[in-house]
Task: structure prediction
Amino acid sequence: MRGIQSLKIGISGVRAVVGESLTPQLIVGFAEAFGTYLGGGVVVIGRDTRPSGEMVYNALVGGLLSTGCSVIDVGVCPAPTIGHAVVDLAGDGGIAITASHNPAQWNALKFLRADGVFLNSYQGEELLNVYHQGAFALQPAGSLGRVVRDEGAINRHLAKVMAATDRKAIAALHPRVVVDSCNGSGSVITRGLLEKMGCEVIAINDVPDGHFPRDPEPIPENLGQLGEAVTEHGADLGFAQDTDADRLAIVSADGEPIGEEFSLAFACDVMAAERSGVLVTNLSTSRMIDEVAQRHDCRVVRTKVGEVSVVEAMIAEQAIGGGEGNGGVIDPTLHYCRDNLAAMALILKGLATKQCSVKEWAESFQPSAIVKDKVPCPAASIQTVLLALQRKYADEDLDLTEGVKVLWPDAWLHARPSGTEPIIRVIAEADDQPTARRICSDAIAVIREVIG
Amino acid sequence: MSLLSAEASRPLKITIGGVRGVVGDTLTPELLTNFSQAFGTYVGPGRVLVSRDTRPSGRMVSHCVLSGLAATGCEVVDLGVCPTAALQLAVKDSDAVGGIAVTAGHNDADWNALKFIRADGIFLNHHQAEELLNVYHQKEFTKAAWDELRPVSHDYEAAERHLEAIRAQLDVETIRAAGLKVAVDCTNGACSDYTPDFLTSLGCEVFAMNDDPDLPFPHEPKPTPENLSQLQALVSAAGADAGFAHDADGDRLGVVTEQGEAPGEEYTLCLAAEMVLERGDPGPVVTNLSTTMRVEAVARKYDREVIRARIGQVYIAETAFNHRAAIAGEGSGGIVFPAINYAHDSIAALVHILELIARRGTRLSELVADIPEYYMVKQTVPCPPQRSFSVLQELREDLRAEWADEINLEDGIKLIGSDRWVHIRVSMTEPRIWVISEARGPQLARDLADQYTRRVRRLS
Result:
């Protein structure tokens, strides 16, 4: 009987389970493919704290050196640090070894291009073609690459965030902050950054050993320990990170997670206050972004879900800010990547400027509730499901860019197939919880009826 | 496909000596990680030590090995660049379950190889090598879960500990008192950071060349006379008492006399044996079927038996172990000192020969002259691996050797006469067949070799 299919290869990289599908062969194959795709050159590699990171790193280096690429190892550091490093070190590409919010038994490769941004979908396809063709540009012994270690990536990233932040205002506020790094790569940088900004920092789960004390996804149900720590220490707020420090969630002084959608809303509120222009987010993100745009005379552009889609639109629109409602904030003045250190800097600046608490800031937005659900759906049924939803909501305002989005004056619904699992994600936002829940359930009922 | 085409001449070789191939061609990261996982599956779980020589692909291969071993849950210790004998001793002296040496020894820089060492510090024997190969082919490797993986650690002291073990065997005072001038060519290999300082610590005046491990091999990393001209020049210029040449990983040793002459790598074993037997170490001398008859001449002086094994480092070590040999070695210049470990040890050979010179108080050229003269001819016929054994089979069925007292079929075909022999065998490391002869005179040896080379060529 076949075991569970745990290998996931896609345009955003490859994910697999250690001890099952994550093998040295898989990794060297992808390394050789990437080296062949780049045609040699310098590749910057970094990783999160997962114990399998070293085994993966060694296989990557073997594969890359064999195709004539040289490697700069920036070690254990956040994903955004790697993005910055590719640019700073004039890399021809980069690889982040991290499975982000997936549980500990997973690891993954994400590929970056020379501008320090993840490969877009076309580039991802091209890389996969090279991998599948299997004709790799292996070099003779005299033409192999070399490996160098770079110890400065974290400090350089820190310095960039510091240079862009209002240290004086934050120091004057002197907030007491609890940070939960989930024992991920945020552990190696966050306390230092916040202290430099003039915060009083209590760090929990800051042992960079990859043994995650909670589900790494920074959604409310995973933030109980952080909430308790915030109240116990009388802190002004708490920050929760995922394992590669690209997504952020906030807990208010009363120990309650305010919801990960607020990370982007707050950050955009700060970025839009500085200059007007375009804000970019995805179709599944809260309408709070539209509210921020209205406050500051900005325009919102919404893309398909995924960091790469948002980034490409941000570049095209020369956006002044962007990100995703799952807690991924992109500050284009720093770098086109989700960066929760940049997010923290923006949010703390906002608190200092507004002279209010997290809760007060959250309450300054129109009340809204967002409900996120999902339904298992076999690949074969996806199209039928989406058509059924289109028919059900035919009289409403529809956006069919990705799946089906229904727009009412005071609410919206977005149903879309996940790129990575056989499910349909259903998200609804409305003025209150019961309404959002009802909209969600209605849609799910339609889907279930189709699948049978 | 022509026998002499490029593709035919550089294929992958998987033998009991490990797996060896050309980088970028047959020696790929996939192969390397697979073999490493096979080894980790075979010997693990446990600690595995990894070392490498200085060839340019060493790092690339090493990273693949580290990954493959780690994936099986082994606790990997990376010794970095060091002589293979140092790795072997480190494995033997620790609780390691095995080791992998990343080295292709005397092959040129295009090649690399993995050599597999078991817990007692000796290479896998041929039964074990077959078992490992079976694991490799079945490809059901141990896959450690995420929380069973062990981080890689480093140990850069293994080579120093190896030198200490060698030093303990020597009469350091005798060497020091002789105040010898020694020239050494480290071929920019794994001994580069060790031999020159070691010799200085023994009171020698050292003239070292090619002792930079970061530079490419200055010549083929094989201490045969054609690669010793730089060393010979250095010996003459420095007025040295002796010159020595290492191969890339500290396995084989070549010798140059104070006259600047390279007598041939066959003499390394003879001289080392003189030292060890004179010292009184008990037991026979072990060598292989292709090594010079001079070994018998030396052993006879001390009333010792010579036991000849099939060609291969593994067989030398095993036979030496089984017969409790005083010393073992191959005519290629690789010497085993059982009192230290059952490993080919170029540095140990060097200092034992120095001690011999110091003890006897005579010049190296005289020590060489004291050993009876024979003439050896070594010829090769290129032959793809898939044909080589059938060629030997056909030869065996149609032998013509009335002059031979003995026909030994243990390793290819060796025809042994009272004062001459010829040995025809398949190379372990390259796609060719060796025809090696030895006789009292050069013409005799050449005629003997030619006779069989012609026949092999016709058959292949």
Remarks:
- Chain B touches chain A at residues 22-25, 28-30, 32-34, 36-37, 55-57, 59-61, 63-64, 66-68, 70-71, 109-112, 141, 143-149, 151-152 (CB under 8 Å).
- Residues 1-8 of chain B have pLDDT under 50 and may be disordered.
- The longest strand of chain B covers residues 111-118.
- The radius of gyration of chain B is 22 Å.
